[in-house]
Amino acid sequence: MTGTDESLQHRDLARAIIDDCAALIVVLDSEGRIVLFNGACERLTGYSSSEVLGRHIWDFLLVPEEIEPVKAVFAELRAGDFPSGFQNFWLSKSGARHLIQWGNTAVVQQGHVQYVIGTGVDVTESRNVEEKLARFELGIQR
């Protein structure tokens, strides 16, 4: 096996792991365009990778009131303020809102941020349960 063959096998293995991972993984270029959108992102949003590659996340995945805050976090990441955490909603193709807890980092090459990597978990259901429990507890205390 040549070094090139081994390198290709490692790349294919890494891609398979990323696609099969339960966590949401999205990679953005330095301008905020999607360059990687894993299988978990596809399943959550209903968008295929081919539909999203090259698009800015704020053009279709975010609720309107969160566009500017997400752009601000992106600007901080580009400026070198990473790793960081953030929570925001993503919109699925059907219009459903999903609350995502993000961990963000960046890939730096030659002193400049080349890619921003977001790894997220859909916390919508757990947040809904927390809210129902809080309302229930408030009802009991009254």
Topology (elements, then pairings):
Blueprint: H1 3-20, E1 24-29, E2 34-37, H2 39-45, H3 49-52, H4 67-78, E3 84-91, E4 97-109, E5 112-122, H5 124-141
Antiparallel strand pairs: 1-2, 1-5, 3-4, 4-5
Could you list some keywords that capture this structure?
single chain, 142 residues, alpha+beta, five-stranded antiparallel beta sheet, 5 helices, globular
Question: How would you portray this structure in words?
Answer:
With 142 residues, this protein is an alpha+beta fold. Helices cover 42% and strands 30% of the residues. Strand 4 and strand 5 form a beta hairpin. It is globular, with a radius of gyration of 18 Å.
Low-confidence stretches: none
Structural class by helix and strand composition: alpha+beta
Oligomer: single chain
**Radius of gyration of CA atoms, rounded to a whole number:** 18 Å
Distance between the termini: 72 Å
Mean pLDDT across residues: 90
Tally of helical segments: 5
Approximate helicity band: 40-55%
Largest sheet: 5 strands, antiparallel
Question: Which sequence of strands runs across the widest sheet?
Answer: 2-1-5-4-3
Order of helices and strands: HEEHHHEEEH
Shape, please?
A: globular
Which strand-content bin applies to the residues? 25-35%
Topology, number of strands: 5
